[in-house]
Amino acid sequence: MMKNPFKRNAAIKQVTRQQLNRRSFLAFTTFAGMGALVYGGWHWLNNSAQEASGITAGRNKLLRKALDQNELILRNAFSNKHLVKTYPQSMAAKNVRVNSDIGMKGNNFDAATWLLAVNKKDGTQLKVSLKDIMTLPKTEITFDFKCVEGWDQISYWGGVKFSDFITHYNLQQEAAMQYVGMATPDGEYYVGMDMESVMHPQTLLAYEVNAQLLPMQHGQPLRLIVPVKYGIKNLKRIGSISFSNKRLPDYWAEQGYDYYSGL
Amino acid sequence: MKVIREKHSLVMRWTHWLNFPILLVMIWSGMLIYWANDVYTITIFSHRFFQFFPAWFNKMLDIPFRLAEGMALHFFFMWFFAINGLLYFLYTVISGEWRQSIPNRHSFKEAWQVLLHDLHIRKMLPPQNKYNAAQRIAYTSIIVMGFGPLVTGLAIYKPVQFYWLTWLCGGYTIARIEHFILTIGYVLFFIIHVVQVAIAGWNNFRSVVSGYEVISNDKTATVKTTDDEKPL
Known about the structure:
The complex is a heterodimer of chains A (263) and B (232). Chain A is an alpha+beta fold. Chain A has six helices and eleven strands. In chain A, the strands form two sheets. Chain A has a five-stranded mixed beta sheet. Chain B has a single domain (3-220), classed as Fumarate Reductase Cytochrome B subunit (Up-down Bundle). In chain B, helix 1 runs antiparallel to helix 3 (67-95), helix 3 (67-95) crosses helix 6 and helix 6 (133-157) runs antiparallel to helix 8 (172-200). Strand 1 of chain A pairs antiparallel with strand 1 (2-6) of chain B, so a sheet runs across the interface.
């Protein structure tokens, strides 16, 4: 039998009562000390300083640091070759779940006059109509949409690949930056994301769900479908798109959620 | 003079006790996450027997509306759970102690006898080594259960980047259910474990803190050693 490298002493031995008491005392003191330390550590964690409000907010500093560190580690696993599993269109839900209408609450929105505003690197703004977008090659995807709450639903979307949109409008300079931000026309809902997730081949500027133009509650006239992220990043009714080398504002990251929220 | 036996190594004791608060935080933060989509029930022939979890239970533990906090805690403490578990696993492999804690061909029969004994149906205990047969089965399954939450957890956490893991678990939806069931399994294990420790008594409990157990108070007593406990 292999020798146990951790055991140097004989397994069975004779000791005096004093030796035994001393050993027990040391062991139980350490045990109690560790218990107190763990309890104190938990108490400290729950009462430690909150992060300063900025791009992210609402978490204490240590947990925010852990979330950001996880992002740095797990972004190494990200690849454009890792595709979200797709399903036959027949498996898509007929009633696509509506979970939020933040950014779409006002009554003064007119889809007919809507234009997508792209804020370019040189400071100019590109305005694109839905009609223009619909002339670009169409891409469809049926995939399992995943909510940060824990539910998931297979749904079927149609639109333009974000990367196709970039190529068509010669936005390569913008796409060379690190972050993308999108906001609803009223500015109430906004998301920020790493460029690689937005340039992922399955990320769409979607104008159709279940082969019909987007209804109001799903983000008429154009929304983001980014399957490598939780639903919170899939902004409905895009008003503007911006680019930056710094993280751009994100609605839920300001409410204590992970900025990355990648799948 | 007393005769003692070195029973549990330092590594085993530290990883064992550290695992307790880590697991507690993981289960607690998991419940904060689960609340946001608490759809699991025990339903047989369309009769719902139980809903995970009842409103009074969530309220009592102050669980509602803490999803973001739950995720932050879960994705921080997961590292400690993984590292602690891996340390223990490496230790059992390197030390060779896994031999004492994996079931052998007699284990299932003997485990049954241990159960009967514990239930006071059978008077005699089957041969007791460092771990008896029932313990061997329980402690090996808990190691399997240690990998389970890591695998199913990673399958839910990054289902696109680790798509093959999600596939292995039977898909995203199934992986989430498996992750949940494993947690329930942990809670059940914990309850049985505590009851068993209480039955086994002080000498046994002390050995998991101090490392030794007293086998005789009489210095003239001869000690029979078992095959896997021969002094070196």
